[in-house]
């Protein structure tokens, strides 16, 4: 049984689902949105994380139907939180996109029909792309990102700072959100250089009018440092691991 044929079967049998990790305002301590993270409930393997199958899904093109399933589930979940929780519902959900999905000419129309079908404000859908996703065919990526943003969808640069062209990325593409890679955060306590780097990224983003999210916050010390560096939003195990949808909808952080 190959991974590819199991992935096809997983689509037929609806074995994919999303967990949701809170993204928190570092000022107010309120949950502002959730990042949707793909999971595969694979028979006789248990829960499989995307790191173990995304590459094969990309190589076989299966990432397109899988990704459409992900977008549909995220939109449906957001609509259902709206219906059940009203004003207490999360305001947005961030979905990760592979390069093949971003390059797929059908993506904007697909998204438009999902947003209409679930009566969602386009601002409530955020798409996360990495530097390597956009840089391989930068012209096409820039055009697609422009089109998505003109629909009102927000676009985030994920894992910022790990690629080879992070800075040129910022002027070639219009990003709404910049997510500082967790390697910068985990090194924060290793001395002043990393704090200086993070502070520079936060300031740069602010001056460009881009929202900043620090990824991979694991300790109260990292949180305090990021607050002192004026970082607006954060995400990481310190706040919460990715959660099942039913738990995420009810999730609140204790008041500080
Ligand atoms: O295996 P692990 O959970 O650590 O993998 C996380 C990686 O998988 C991250 O790079 C994340 O961006 C990616 N990922 C998570 N969910 C999705 C998804 O729905 N689609 C795509 N294309 N990538 C995803
Ligand atoms: O590449 P991307 O940022 O989309 O990856 C998301 C991945 O990061 C998920 O697999 C998620 O479980 C993981 N993650 C989220 N918060 C933390 C954290 O605080 N520490 C570590 N090590 N991983 C995290
Ligand atoms: Mn991400
Ligand atoms: Na990331």
UniProtKB/TrEMBL annotation:
Residues 1-256 form the EAL domain. This is EAL domain-containing protein. It comes from Humisphaera borealis. The chain holds residues 493 to 748 of 754 of the full protein.
